[in-house]
Amino acid sequence: MSGPPVKLSFGLNKAQLPRQPVKRAVPGKSAFGLQPDDDDDDSVQLPAHLDTAKAKNRPAISTATLTKAKRAQQQAELELDQSVYEYDEVYDNMKAAEKVAVDARKQESADRKPKYINRLLETAEVRKQDRLRAEDKMIAREREREGDEFADKDQFVTPAYLQQQEELRKAEEEEKKREEAERAKKGSGMTSFFKSYLDSTEAAHAAAVAATSSSAPKVALGPQRPTEKQKTDAELAAEVEAQTGRRIEINDEGEIVDRRQLMAGGLNIVKPKTSAPGFSVPIAARTAPKPGALDGAKGSSTEALLHPGLSAAERARQSRERHSREVERQMLALEEKRKREADEALEQKVQKVAKRNDDDRVAQLKKAAEERRKKRLEEAAANKPAAP
Fold first, then answer.
1. Total domain count for the chain?
2. What is the pLDDT of residues 337-356, one digit of tens each?
3. pLDDT at residue 120 greater than cutoff 70
């Protein structure tokens, strides 16, 4: 008897379950009367709990609402400042101003004359003058060693020698002036290096600030406080008369005679003055505080003295000026203290000399000396042997 071969397998034999067919979502009726077959979306229907979780995590903000809010914000910013989004123009102006400063330095370096050949010629001329100066000193020393040996001899000096001596004297004076000028220009050590570097960077920054302030329209940045119109005395009087019924006296010039008539019963609160403008004022319209205000404000903080609209370079310059004034004040105080101490020391010396040379003291010293002299005479007479 024959039949199909038997297949053997080892392990866990799990029967495969038949796959369930995927149910497609049945579209409902459309609100616009369309048939279900008009929609080509063959999406798979998700379980109810997953659909609910997605609905909970879905943001409740509409894209159209965000776009409308952004458009309103942009419109408000453009009304305040037309150049609020002109980033490229402002950046180009700043870089153009800095490039002008760099080109000016390069042009200054390019305008310099050739320094190698001219330096060699100048060095040769200087060495020649040094040699002539050394020869003159050697001749002068020889004349000093000779002394009066050739004093009775005649001396002959040529005009060329006199001209040469005059040129040497002028060269020495020019060299001294040039050394003093270089010493004053270069300064000492790293201080002069940092000073020159700070001056160059500050010049570039000032050029960039000037370019941005001149190109941008002169409009205020940020929100501004509404300007209140100052009421005249006549308007104030009319307002008080309408509110209280009192008659306010006004002179021929339209001014209130007695301003106490404007006060009412109770606490009269005066409106505070508006603070100074800060960043709402353009850079070109900002001004630094007066030097007198900085001198008189002692004990207050540095930031309170500075105008809030000043740049970092202006604040640094004012800080250097305040430091210079403080150092000068300290030097004057130290000099005054030294002078006062010298005057006190001189006065003490005068008092000591006056006490030492007093008339009564001199009389006492004379009297004591006289008594000592008499005592010595008496002792000498007593010790003298009697005559036989």
1. 1
2. 999 999 999 888 888 777 66
3. yes
- Is the model's pLDDT at 49 over the cut of 70? no
Which tokens is 294 given? 């900085």
**Residue reference for tokens 């995927």:** 22
C-beta atoms surrounding 281 within 10 Å: 19
The per-residue DSSP string of 224-273 comes to -PPPPPPPPHHHHHHHHHHHH-PPPPB-TTS-BS-GGGG--SS--PPPPP
> Which are the contacts of 289, defined by CB distance < 8 A and separation ≥ 6?
305, 306, 307
Give dist(CA 46, CA 68) in Å, integer.
34
- Identity of residue 327: V
- Is pTM beyond 0.70? Reply is no
Position 251 in a domain: yes
| pLDDT (tens digit per residue) in 237-248 | 888 888 888 888
Q: d(Cα 170, Cα 242) in Å, to the nearest integer?
A: 91
CA within 13 Å, CB half, 288: 14
The residue length of the chain stands at 388
Does any domain span residue 243?
A: yes
